[in-house]
């Protein structure tokens, strides 16, 4: 492979402007991440500690191997909504007893760990990631159940959690419940559905109905321990497999269970040299644009992410708005598709289709680096078959079976989002740089389209066009789309798996690739009909 030569000028005004902008964006991101870490705030954290209990991230830290990485997912879930940032649950991929696992941990300092609609989405996405990547699941349970005022948005879909837990078990993907506190009503089925259940003495409360409900329903008097304590479930009901004397003992037992799984990956390990890139990843902050309408060369990103800055480019002189080629990240071979000038033309669409099929023939995972405004429009391109060629690319993406990893570097607009393996095309994991944007099109373009439609409608109806009202509508629509395409808004709704610092891209991709190789890595051997 060729070693990429960087042409980046770090003294350039554009670089400096981009760098300052990205630092500001990352400061805003860090502020929101810190809000998620603080959970319910100091008052509720203190109350939790006063009860002799560990905070959610302390439990996670003790559960993980010493100095192991933890790739937290959807940290800003529920941002900008009535619910706490982070959605009262922490999810992520971490190594426990040498095994990469999916962790799903309730934060009891936020409304007792109660589940809201965003908690549900976040949990279901974590279970989906565990299934498609074949990762054992560890639930760190302490939740008061559903957030009752939002039950209409929860009840029907929440049953999918139990469905997915038992599906994982049927697929021989282990599921473990470490119960630190409440696991009541529907939540009682989490330890019930998991392969292994560990409960903490005098803290775990696992029952379908608590004392007040039992009294109302049956007239029977019973306390928490009789109904659902760890001792009762260990000695009487048999629901508890392991009785823990305290939280640290519960975590110790959880680690022991994982160590005894006899777990092994189905995909190959790293096969390429995993040497560091030749260029400083800090320079990625100056590459990421402050204005997403300004293009940049994705090779400058690739040179700071892949092993040894080596990149074997494919069809370098054809379809140049899309860069394709072969590399490796932390020793794992990858095929890379990266937008160079935003727009996808006919040649780029056909080039991508061929490249994706080649990757599937060689069982090589694909990395999509998005910065696209979509497929080209206009008479020349419509007559030239842009719909057919775009369909080929989307067909190739949809039917590809090798792991896909997607990172939105700047812009992901229109059908380009689909062709570059957006959320709807089931990438194993999908991340976005903190300054990126995602929408059907740019805010100015969308507002302009709406204005043109309004003018046409007025003309067709024989009405006078209100220019002043149109200007107000355009400004309002533009502001709305700017807000809804903002990276924080997008990640809050789990349209990606988290926002990342550009400098962490290589590390995040390394963890994601390692996780993906827990499952079989094999390409598609047949495709649907291509419109030629």
From TrEMBL:
Keyword S-adenosyl-L-methionine found: no
A Pfam family of this chain: Carboxyl_trans
SUPFAM superfamilies linked: ClpP/crotonase
GO MF terms, alphabetically ordered: ligase activity; transferase activity
Domain CoA carboxyltransferase N-terminal as annotated: residue spans: 22-273
Keyword tags: Transferase
Name the record gives this protein: Acetyl-CoA carboxylase, carboxyltransferase component
Domain of life: Bacteria
Every CoA carboxyltransferase C-terminal domain range: 28-265, 273-519
């Amino acid at each position: 492979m060729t070693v990429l030569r960087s042409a980046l000028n770090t003294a350039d005004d554009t670089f400096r402007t981009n760098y300052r902008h990205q630092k500001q964006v990352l400061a805003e991101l860090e502020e929101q991440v810190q809000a998620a870490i603080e959970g319910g705030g100091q008052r509720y954290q203190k109350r939790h500690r006063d009860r002799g209990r560990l905070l959610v991230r302390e439990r996670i830290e003790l559960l993980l191997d010493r100095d192991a990485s933890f790739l937290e997912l959807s940290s800003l879930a529920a941002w900008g909504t009535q619910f706490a940032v982070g959605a009262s649950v922490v999810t992520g991929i971490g190594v426990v007893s040498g095994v990469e696992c999916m962790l799903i941990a309730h934060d009891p300092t936020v409304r007792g760990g109660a589940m809201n609609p965003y908690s549900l989405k976040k949990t279901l996405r974590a279970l989906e990631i565990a299934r498609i990547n074949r990762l054992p699941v560890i639930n760190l349970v302490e939740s008061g159940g559903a957030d009752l005022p939002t039950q209409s948005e929860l009840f029907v879909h929440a049953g999918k959690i139990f469905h997915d837990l038992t599906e994982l078990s049927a697929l021989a993907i282990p599921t473990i419940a470490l119960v630190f506190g409440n696991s009541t009503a529907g939540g009682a089925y989490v330890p019930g559905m998991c392969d292994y259940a560990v409960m903490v003495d005098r803290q775990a409360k696992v029952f379908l109905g608590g004392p007040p409900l039992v009294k109302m329903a049956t007239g029977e008097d019973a306390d928490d321990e009789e109904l659902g304590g760890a001792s009762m479930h260990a000695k009487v009901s048999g629901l508890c497999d392991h009785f823990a004397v305290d939280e640290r003992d519960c975590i110790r037992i959880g680690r022991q269970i994982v160590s005894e799984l006899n777990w092994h990956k189905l995909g190959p390990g790293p096969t390429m040299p995993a040497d560091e890139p030749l260029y400083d990843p800090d320079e990625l902050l100056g590459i990421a644009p402050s204005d997403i309408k300004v293009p940049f060369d994705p090779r400058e990103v690739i040179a700071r992410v892949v092993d040894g800055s080596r990149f074997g480019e494919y069809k370098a002189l054809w379809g140049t708005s899309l860069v394709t080629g072969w590399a490796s990240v932390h020793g794992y071979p990858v095929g890379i598709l990266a937008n160079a000038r935003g727009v996808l033309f006919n040649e780029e669409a056909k080039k991508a289709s061929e490249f994706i099929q080649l990757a599937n023939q060689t069982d090589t995972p694909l990395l999509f680096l998005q910065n696209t405004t979509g497929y080209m429009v206009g008479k020349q391109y419509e007559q030239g078959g842009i719909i057919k060629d775009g369909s080929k690319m989307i067909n190739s993406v949809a039917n590809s079976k090798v792991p896909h990893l997607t990172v939105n570097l700047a812009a992901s607009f229109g059908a380009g989002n689909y062709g570059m393996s957006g959320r709807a095309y089931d990438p194993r994991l999908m991340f976005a740089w903190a300054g990126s944007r995602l929408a059907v099109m740019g805010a100015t373009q969308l507002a302009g389209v709406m204005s043109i439609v309004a003018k046409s409608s007025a003309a067709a109806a024989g009405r006078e066009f209100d220019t002043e009202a149109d200007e107000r509508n355009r400004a309002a629509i533009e502001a709305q789309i700017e807000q809804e395409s903002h990276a924080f808004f997008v990640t809050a709704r789990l349209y990606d798996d988290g926002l990342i610092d550009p400098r962490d891209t290589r590390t995040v991709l390394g963890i994601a690739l390692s996780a993906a190789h827990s499952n079989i890595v094999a390409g598609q051997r047949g495709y649907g009909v291509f419109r030629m």
